[in-house]
Amino acid sequence: MTEVKRRGIKNFGRYFWNTFKEAKYLLFKYVVCAVLMSVITVLANLLQVQELTYLNAVLAINAFSTSISFGISQGITVMVNQSINSKFRVRKYIRLGNIINLIFVTIFTMILALFPRFIMETITSYVPQDYTFYYLMCGYFFICGIKEYLLQTLKQLKIFKMQFFSDCLNYILVVLGFIILYFSGFYLLNYIASIYIVAVFITMIIGIIVITKNKTVSVNLFHFEKISLTKKQIKIILYNLGAEFIWQIGIFLISVFFLRLSDALLNTFSYLEVVLDILLGFYLAFADVTSIKIARALGRSNFDKASLYAKYSIYGTFVIWLFYFAVSMIFSYPIALGVNKEYFLIMFSVLPCYAFVYLLKFTNWTFSSYMLRLGGKAFSLFVIESIKTLLYLVLCLISRYIPNNVYLAYLIISIPEIMAIPIEFIIYKRKKWLANVNEDPNLLRNKVKCFIFDFDDTLYYGVNSNAFKQLVLNFFNEHFSQYSEKEKKQILKKYHCGRKGLEVYRHIKEILIDYEGSSNAWINFKGGLELQPEEKQGKGILNKELEKCKQLGHLYIVSNSHIKEIQMRAKLYGINLKLFKKIYSNDTNIADGPKGVFYKQIMESEKLLPENMLVVGDQYKTDLLPAKELEMNIFKSDGGFTFEELVG
């Protein structure tokens, strides 16, 4: 094995392990909640058969409600994580998603409440005697839709710990409620509806508090404000919503297909869905964290890193599936034997087929999540899910003509997944998903067409401050060596600075100009300062950031320094002055000049608006205040900057 391959395997192993460590609370959540859900299923089976059918039918409808919130939050995820270094933008996007979610969940709840008979009798083929439970569950659907969006938002912000506690608390409360009903002998569904409502309401309140009080991004979800979205961003949200909703219909159709073939086939499929849902959490935890990493890399235009994460995610998918397959083979059989001997016999043919289907599903989820959803290709995702669901519908319609054979049934439901993988793989290989989808017109990166930089302490940095202080003091003493100590003190007193005051450029600059009668002494002084080791570390790095800026517009330097001094420092630090369209320097007077005059002149020559200009400097009063008065964008440079910091 070559050294390159060994290094690649080692790097993947490190990434895989670190991702799981980061996702530990998500992993706990998926596993614990799957166990609790299994317990709830067992407790629910203690109810009367007719009531159990009613409960399952209504809970199945709830899956469509949560898919709305999940789809909206997935669309918002793209924008939130691509603006994660801008707290202001993150807040606005989260609030926007909350508003959109409230609108859709409200509409969906109203449809459920207005057409109960049609929904229960036509869609679920069940006629309840009393609709009180149904109406109570409509309230549950509404609160659950809000809760689902809040939990997805916590995940976007990488607040996994609270998401774990919130979800687990929700299921624990439902379990406790069922246990109380079991021992009290009350099996009325109205009590069960109350249990669901109380549990999800408490979880919703926790989600609101956490998002509101979070130190990183404190979001007031009830603050409504207007925000402009591009057509592309609107499409991303709607296509994600549509894809999730259609996907949920597809899951329902698969169950209908198995039911029409055989009760035993449906029962074993449902059994595996519940039992192996515990193992599914391993893949979902890994996928969630990786998808967030990719979204943030894309937002920072770090395409190489996003591409690497995506490649590792594909490798990780196969590793997790091997674990999924091996463990499912080990403990699914004995559980089936304990539940039903008929299941145990059928399982020998069903489980390998089921595992194969999930290999396809894992692969499709990986491609669709990373390459389609996060890359802004949500329309492709919507089309693929629509075609898959349409095929499932066709299978349901022709099910009467299909032989009741396990291998044939699973092969048929695999066809849509098999068809989708090559399409998604082509999109992945073409790398168009790496295109930055963040086209919000309000973002600085989409408004700035011209950059104006100060020079001193802005385009070079990393000065050893202690060494510089000593150089200033030594130079002052050497240059004024012919003066007596008393005369030196008078000079310092005249300029209102003690010995420490000489640490500032301005003080020694003014003294030298006044006493020498020209700026040459100051230029010679700065030219005599030798680079310290800390300074050399930054040499040449800045050019890469400036080149990124130049892709957005022209670059200028406006400095009070002499042109020779600028050229000297540029050579010293490796700054490429050819990147700048023009350099405005003060060749006749080094004293601070009115920079706003030059800013306005540049703006007029470029024929731009103030919002299209960005001024970068280290001094607020001399560099940035004139720009602010002209209503230009400003950035204060403290020890250097990057392109992302400028436009973030």
Structure, described:
Among the domains are: 18-227, no CATH class; 446-461 and 538-647, Rossmann fold (3-Layer(aba) Sandwich); 465-533, no CATH class. The protein is 72% helix and 3% strand. The chain is built from 25 helices and five strands. It has helices at 3-22, 24-44, 49-81, 87-114, 116-123, 132-156, 160-184, 189-213, 231-261, 263-275, 277-299, 303-339, 341-373, 378-397, 406-430, 465-479, 485-494, 505-516, 520-528, 533-536, 541-550, 563-573, 595-606, 620-629, 643-647, and strands at residues 450-453, 554-558, 582-584, 613-617, 633-636. Residues 1-5, 528-539 and 588-592 have low confidence and may be disordered.
Q: Any chance you could write out the topology, listing elements then pairs?
A:
Layout lengths: L2 H20 L1 H21 L4 H33 L5 H28 L1 H8 L8 H25 L3 H25 L4 H25 L17 H31 L1 H13 L1 H23 L3 H37 L1 H33 L4 H20 L8 H25 L19 E4 L11 H15 L5 H10 L10 H12 L3 H9 L4 H4 L4 H10 L3 E5 L4 H11 L8 E3 L10 H12 L6 E5 L2 H10 L3 E4 L6 H5 L1
Parallel strand pairs: 1-2, 1-4, 2-3, 4-5
Helix pairs in contact: 1-11, 2-7, 2-11, 3-4, 3-6, 3-9, 3-11, 4-6, 6-7, 6-8, 7-8, 9-10, 9-14, 10-13, 11-12, 11-13, 12-13, 13-15, 14-15
Label this structure with key terms.
648 residues, mainly alpha, Rossmann fold, five-stranded parallel β-sheet, 25 helices, 5 strands, 72% helix, elongated, disordered N terminus
